[in-house]
Design goal:
The chain has 16 helices and no strands. The chain is 62% helix and 0% strand. It has helices at residues 9-16, 27-30, 36-52, 62-72, 77-90, 104-117, 119-127, 132-135, 137-141, 150-160, 167-178, 180-184, 189-196, 204-217, 224-227, 254-302. The radius of gyration is 22 Å and the shape is elongated. The protein is mostly helical and 303 residues long.
C-alpha cells in the first residue's frame, strides 16, 4: 500500500481503551449523521486521534477531515485510524504550526502559486476582500470531500497519495483555476461559499492534468516541495509523537489569542496592499506598452 501502514494493533488498542474523548461525546449535535453506527465509529476514531495528540481535540475541522475516510473504511476503524494518522502526519503536518492562528504557511503557498498562474483570479478575490482562508481553506479542511462526488474524490486521492505531499496544495490551485469562470462571476462571499461547500460538476481529468502542469511550472517560481516535507511512513510498533503544534498551544491565554488574531488582520491588510501595488505596476506597464505601440504606429504611418 502507498501509505505503508504499520499495522500497530496493540498501540491502537491502548488508545481505544481510553474511551470516548470529552470533545466528541456529543458529536451528533454538530454532525447529525443518519447512520448511528457511522456516528459511533467516527466518535471512536476521533477519540483515538485526540488521545494520541490531545491538541487535535481543539481543532474544529478534525471531524471534517476524518469524515470522507470514515465513510470509506466504515467497517474497519483500525485501518481508518492509521490512514488518517498518516495523512495528518504528512499532508496536514504544517497546518498546526501557528495555532490558534490559521495555517499561514500553507495558505501562503496556495496564494503564491495562484499569483504566478492566474493573477486575474487572485486580484478578483482581493477586490472582493477574500483571503486564502475563504477560497482555499474550505477545500483543504474537507480534503475536497464536499465539492467532489465520491467517484471523482477517489480518483483525485489516487493521485494525491501517489505524489509528494505538496501535490495536495497544487490540486487546490488547480481546482480554482479550472473553475475560474464561475469564481470570476462571484460577487459576494456567499457565492464563493456556496460553490466550495456543495457538490459541483467539475472536470476531474482537467483538474488532475492542471495539477501536474502546475507541478512542472512552479519549480522555477514557487518551490512548493521545499516548503512541504517529504513523505514519512508511520513507525512500526508505536505511533510517532505529534510534534507539529506550537509548544504554547496547550494553555494559551485568551489575551495572546487576541494578539494573534490582530496580527492576522494586520498581515491580511498588508498582503492586500502588496497585491494592489502589484496590480498598479502591471497596469502602468501595460499603459507604457500601449503608448509605445501607438507611437510606433504613428511613425510607420508617417513613413
Amino acid at each position: 500500500m502507498l501509505l505503508q501502514l504499520p499495522d500497530n494493533h496493540e498501540e491502537f488498542g491502548i488508545l481505544s481503551e481510553k474511551g470516548l474523548h470529552p470533545a466528541f461525546r456529543r458529536l451528533e449535535v454538530k454532525y447529525p449523521l443518519k447512520s448511528r453506527q457511522l456516528l459511533s465509529h467516527m466518535q471512536r476514531v476521533l477519540s483515538a486521534l485526540a488521545h494520541w495528540a490531545p491538541s487535535l481535540a481543539e481543532e474544529g475541522y478534525l471531524a471534517l477531515l476524518t469524515f470522507p475516510f470514515m465513510k470509506l473504511f466504515r467497517h474497519n476503524q483500525f485501518i481508518c485510524f492509521e490512514v488518517i494518522l498518516t495523512i495528518i502526519n504528512n499532508w496536514c503536518r504544517h497546518w498546526f504550526e501557528f495555532y490558534p492562528a490559521p495555517a499561514f504557511n500553507v495558505l501562503s503557498v496556495v496564494e503564491n502559486v495562484l499569483a504566478h498562474q492566474d493573477k486575474k483570479l487572485l486580484l478578483h478575490f482581493v477586490r472582493l476582500g477574500f483571503t486564502s482562508q475563504v477560497y482555499a481553506w474550505p477545500l483543504l479542511e474537507t480534503l475536497f470531500s464536499e465539492i467532489l462526488p465520491k467517484r471523482d474524490w477517489l480518483r483525485l486521492w489516487d493521485h494525491v497519495l501517489s505524489n509528494h505531499p505538496s501535490f495536495l496544495l497544487l490540486c487546490v490551485v488547480a481546482l480554482l483555476t479550472t473553475s475560474r469562470r464561475v469564481l470570476l462571476g462571484a460577487e459576494c462571499l456567499a457565492d464563493v461559499q456556496v460553490f466550495l461547500h456543495q457538490r459541483q460538476v467539475i472536470d476531474i481529468n482537467a483538474l488532475i492534468q492542471e495539477a501536474y502542469r502546475l507541478e512542472g511550472v512552479t519549480r522555477s517560481s514557487v518551490d512548493v516541495e521545499n516548503v512541504i516535507d517529504d513523505f514519512e511512513a508511520l513507525s512500526k510498533r508505536e505511533y510517532p509523537t505529534f510534534k507539529h503544534y506550537p509548544t504554547y498551544s496547550e494553555d494559551y491565554p485568551e489575551q495572546e489569542r487576541e494578539q494573534i488574531r490582530q496580527k492576522e488582520l494586520q498581515y491580511l491588510s498588508q498582503r492586500k496592499e502588496e497585491l494592489a501595488l502589484q496590480n498598479s505596476l502591471l497596469r502602468e506597464q501595460a499603459l507604457h506598452r500601449e503608448l509605445h505601440d501607438f507611437r510606433l504606429r504613428q511613425t510607420s504611418f508617417k513613413m
